[in-house]
Amino acid sequence: MEIAPFDNRDGYIWMNGDFIHWNDAKCHVITQGLHYASAVFEGERAYNGKIFKSKEHTQRLYKSAEIVGIKIPYSQDEINKAKDELIKKMGFNDCYVRPIAWRGSQQMGISTAKSDINVAIAVWDDWASYFKIEDRKAGLKLVTSPWKRPSPDTAPCEAKASGPYVICTMSKEFAEDKGYNDALMLDYRGFVAEGTGANIFFIKDNAIHTPIPDCFLNGITRQTVIEMVTDQGFQVEEKHLKPEEMKNYEEAFLTGTAAEITPIQLIDETKFNTGEDTKTFQFMQDFHQLVRS
Questions:
Q1: What CA–CA distance (Å, rounded) separates 282 from 61?
Q2: Which helix (H) or strand (E) element contains residue 58?
Q3: How far is CA 90 from the centre of its chain?
Q4: Which of these, 21, 51, 150, 208, is most buried using a 10 Å CB contact count?
């Protein structure tokens, strides 16, 4: 089935305090958010009509905005209420939720002194996962990106901001052009960091290791999975991982709002176990139940 382009759909978008028809949600081409990537956003999922950790996502949106100097002209309660009302207005049960705040067209240039701030929320139901269902079942194939996560003193790594994502889009294109599903991102020191839009975990026996999020986003799904598997008795250790250490692990998987928990079968030349008898498969089932409970 062909997916409709995002600029031509039915339904509504909440924008600057009002529910407007989807195709009327527009901004001018001369906009600071477009020209200078001056925007922050969130990626959220609703299950059975309820957004998973909605308040936590909104809190992170406001933290991101504060880091990059954007003052959102609405309260967190107003944003949370708007998200819930929009899902009901669209008639969705399971859907993806995208709040975004950006600097508008009041002025142009690097200076932000007189910038106006726009806020919008959109929801859609045809982005079931960041990856195709068949790829998730088989396990993803990743290749190491030539681009690296920058040092935290050169990019706002604790903010889910638009600017740093250009590295992700370049890396994703690099991987797909070579026939892979995604790219593995290393950090500025050469340690394993994450995928292009999801955090990464490795499993050996009952030990689970994941990179320290000191130069990339500590995902809400990442935190949820750590809590979930710790409650099950697994030992989770955050550590700096060298690429050559990946061969010491039996399983690997990605986590994220869109990716949920997605197994990895290959990173470069390193193979990992996948299938119904793996711990990753069980984690997928457990996470499925958790977000719908």
A1: 31
A2: helix 54-68
A3: 22
A4: 208
Q: How far apart (Å, rounded) are the C-alpha atoms in residues 250 and 4?
A: 40
**Count of positions (residues) in the chain:** 293
Contacts of 83 (CB under 8 A, 6+ apart): 14, 44, 51, 54, 58, 97, 99, 121, 123
User: At residue 89, does pLDDT exceed 90?
Assistant: yes
Alpha carbons 99 and 74: distance in angstroms, whole number: 12
CATH 3.20.10.10 maps onto the chain at 133-291
Q: How far is CA 153 from the centre of its chain?
A: 22
Cα of first residue to Cα of last residue in the chain, in angstroms, is 30
- For residue 129, name the pLDDT band (cuts at 50, 70, 90): low
Q: Are strands 270-271 and 260-267 parallel, antiparallel or unpaired?
A: antiparallel
- Rg of the chain's alpha carbons, rounded to an integer? 19
Q: Which of 31-40, 65-74, 121-130 has the lowest mean pLDDT?
A: 121-130
- Give 1's pLDDT tier (boundaries 50, 70, 90): low
d(CA 55, CA 64): 14
Residue whose structure tokens are 């407007």: 20
* Beta bridge pairs of residue 208: 203, 236
Query: Which residues pair with residue 45 across a beta bridge?
Result: 96
| Res 92 pLDDT > 80 | yes
Catalytic residue selected from 83, 141, 148, 160 = 160
Strand pairing of 95-103 and 117-124? antiparallel
Positions of CATH 3.30.470.10 in the chain: 12-124
* Statement: 133-291 belongs to CATH 3.20.10.10: yes
- pLDDT value, residue 130: 63
Cα atoms in the 13 Å half-sphere on the side-chain side of 234:
23
Whether 279 sits among the annotated catalytic residues: the reply is no
CA distance 4 to 75: 32
Mean pLDDT of 19-32: 97
